[in-house]
Amino acid sequence: MRAYFLTFFLVGIALALPAKAQRSIDFVGAAQEGDALIIAISDEKTLDGLGEVIGEEALANVRRAITASAFEAEAGATASFLSGAQAFGEIHLVGVASEGMRARDWEDFGGRAAVLAKATKAARVTVFAPGVADADIINAAFGAAIGQYSFDKYKSDMEPATGALVFVSETPGATRASYRGERAHLAHSVKWARDMQSEPANVIYPEEFVRRARAEFKGVSNVTIKVLDVRAMRRLGMGAILGVGKGSVRPPRMMIIHYSGGGSEAPMVYAGKGITFDSGGISIKGKKGMWMMKADMTGAATVTGAVLSLAKSMAPVNVIAIAALAENMPDGAAQRPGDVVKTMSGLTVEIMSTDAEGRLVLADAVWYAQEQFNPSLLVDVATLTGSVGRALGDEYAGLFTRDDAIAERLSAAGEEAGEDLWRLPLHPNHKLQIKSVIADIKNGDTGAPGASTGAAFIGSFVKEETPWAHLDIAGVDWLTEAKATAPVGASGFSVRLLDQLARDSAK
């Protein structure tokens, strides 16, 4: 029977499809009749054992189609064929490297497989990676889980669930248990953070963020949640976060999620910027792209997501997420450029720009973290500056720290997790640039480099003895081009990194 050949462009498939629900992820020992097949291929020898699965005639048809199309199994390349066999109508090939495949590379393979799976109407799609260890099958399944993500809640043409995406494993039961014990929770947490980023600001505001987080942690062991309202923050002297929230009818909140899974060790603390919408306040932004400021709470979403993953998988760590939540709006009660606020630490800040609000909410958050928890490591995460994106694009988040060893730890965790960091400078001159004439420091009008002076501002509230790092994720939080494990839109960047960092510390 003649084999028919058709090559798809990966992004083109995704754009052409109507909205579809995400497929469930599972593991099997073999394909079954009627499945669409997706196969990892590094060269034609990869296909040698496939005849036992699809039949020798169908395999011969695939080989002829590969030759006719001049398909080269380069990493990331995809091709799709009609097999010419009754049992399996579709066969999709995804190129992988012949050697040196890292965990993140198998995740990318899984993400590409998931996008191909969304293009087929088959009830079940089976993924083969011949000769690959089950650990990397799990990596591929994780990549598929987050790679098929889409935020379709408000679309009227949403199609119903389309079935399962299953991965062939030599020991499917054990592989399934391992995946569900850890990586499935991480995938869910990444997608939860993306959902929070994607929701419009008329839906997500400080109190609703808290409500949704509480719902996610309901019933999870060893977790306590504390929420500071306006009265509590006033009592603690948190003038910075309160100043940011003054212009909104939706009051600020500071949420502290404490997961205790590691005995008596001092906790790691992740503090996230949670501006649920950033108009710029009185220093109002231009209209172009302001809609994206609904995602200015990404730091809070990702630190919450990381702790959610760790807690649900019962990781042997102590870790705390602090979400510093406020809406930055320009009503008559809003703070003004030129105002002076007093932070919880006692330092005073001259407000040079109300659009430099993220560093203000984090000033009180990181000080609270140190006073309450004496963390073994403090990491703050924020969509802080446009300058970091101009410097690093969407390939790296900016990493700032005073400690070389901490820089190495975070960079290694990012490499392992598939979320890369690039260290940027913290120079003594940056502290001089934030000095104010009438207050202790100022929050803007500092000149270049903006990402470094923003980090220096937050660092002013971190004690010298506190191990600390600042992640500026403003260039990587929202993608304008799809990646293998993330579509256009919210990326959930840093959930995977922070999860990995905590697990590494447990080792």
What does this entry look like structurally?
There is one protein chain. The protein is an alpha/beta fold and 507 residues long. The protein has two domains: 4-168, Leucine Aminopeptidase, subunit E, domain 1 (3-Layer(aba) Sandwich), CATH 3.40.220; 188-506, Aminopeptidase (3-Layer(aba) Sandwich). The chain is 37% helix and 20% strand. The chain contains 16 helices and 20 strands. The chain has helices at residues 10-16, 51-54, 56-69, 103-118, 134-147, 172-198, 206-217, 230-236, 239-245, 298-312, 358-373, 386-392, 404-417, 428-433, 450-459, 495-506, and strands at residues 4-6, 24-28, 36-41, 78-82, 90-95, 124-128, 164-168, 223-228, 253-260, 268-278, 318-328, 340-342, 348-350, 377-382, 397-401, 421-423, 441-442, 468-472, 478-479, 489-490. The chain has an eight-stranded mixed β-sheet, sandwiched between helices. β12 and β13 (348-350) form a beta hairpin. α6 packs antiparallel against α10 and α10 packs across α16 (495-506). It starts with a strand and ends with a helix. The model is unreliable at 1-19 (pLDDT under 50).
